[in-house]
Amino acid sequence: MKKIKILDKSWIERIFEIEKKSFSSPWTKRFFLNLFDEENVFVYGFFLNKDLIGFSVIEYLINYSIAHLQNFAINPEYQNKGFGSYFLSLMHENFKKNKIYKIFLEVRVTNYKAINLYEKFNYKTINTLSDYYENNEDAYRMWFNLEN
Ligand SMILES: CC(C)(COP(=O)(O)OP(=O)(O)OC[C@H]1O[C@@H](n2cnc3c(N)ncnc32)[C@H](O)[C@@H]1OP(=O)(O)O)[C@@H](O)C(=O)NCCC(=O)NCCS
């Protein structure tokens, strides 16, 4: 069974393990822990049966009318099996249920896999953010309107 669930701080070790395996410049554990104290930020876990195999971090803006996908990862052992696509579609269903139709995110311009995934779902690149990342890499800002 596959499902998404909001995670609390008790999941930090598992989340951080996936984060470290997924990114060359992972967020710190402290950074994650602080997110749990933000009232408009939620960490969603993606479960395959009882195993946490991915997570996303969503910041809700403007009275919960816009979702900012701040982080999104699938444990590398489970990548390329369609789980990322499935997780994103479950997130979309959840947004729709809560009448949230606008989503945006930033992605490294060299992260072809993630860009392909977002484009598959019809996310559109709106602009390029220069030197957005710590290694001066640019980001694409992508938007998606769930009403379209
Ligand atoms: C991005 C990520 C979440 C995708 O998860 P996943 O489970 O591997 O995704 P899927 O198996 O559903 O594949 C999704 C799409 O990615 C694209 N894709 C997969 N492998 C690819 C590759 N080697 N090169 C380019 N695109 C690729 C395809 O469009 C694929 O869709 P398709 O299989 O229908 O053609 C995952 O790779 C990940 O955690 N990466 C590291 C963290 C990260 O970069 N997160 C995004 C931050 S913005």
Summary tags:
binds coenzyme A; 148 residues; 7 strands; alpha+beta
In terms of topology, how is this protein built?
Blueprint lengths: L1 E6 L4 H11 L6 H7 L5 E8 L2 E11 L4 E9 L8 H15 L4 E7 L3 H9 L3 E6 L9 E7 L3
Bound molecules: coenzyme A.
Coenzyme A binds next to strand 4, helix 3 and helix 4.
Any idea what the radius of gyration is?
Answer: 15 Å
Alpha-carbon distance between the two ends: 29 Å
State the order of secondary-structure elements, H for helix, E for strand. Answer: EHHEEEHEHEE
Which regions are unreliable across 5 or more consecutive residues at pLDDT < 50? none
Helix/strand class: alpha+beta
Largest sheet: 7 strands, mixed
Write structural notes for this entry.
By secondary structure, the protein is α+β, with helices and mostly antiparallel strands. It has helices at about 10-20, 30-35, 85-95, 110-120; strands at about 1-5, 40-50, 50-60, 65-75, 100-110, 125-130, 140-145. Strands 1-2-3-4-5-7-6 form a seven-stranded mixed β-sheet. Strand 2 and strand 3 form a beta hairpin. The longest helix has 15 residues, at about 85-95. The radius of gyration is 15 Å and the shape is globular. The model has no long low-confidence stretch (mean pLDDT about 95). Coenzyme A (COA) binds next to strand 4, helix 3 and helix 4.
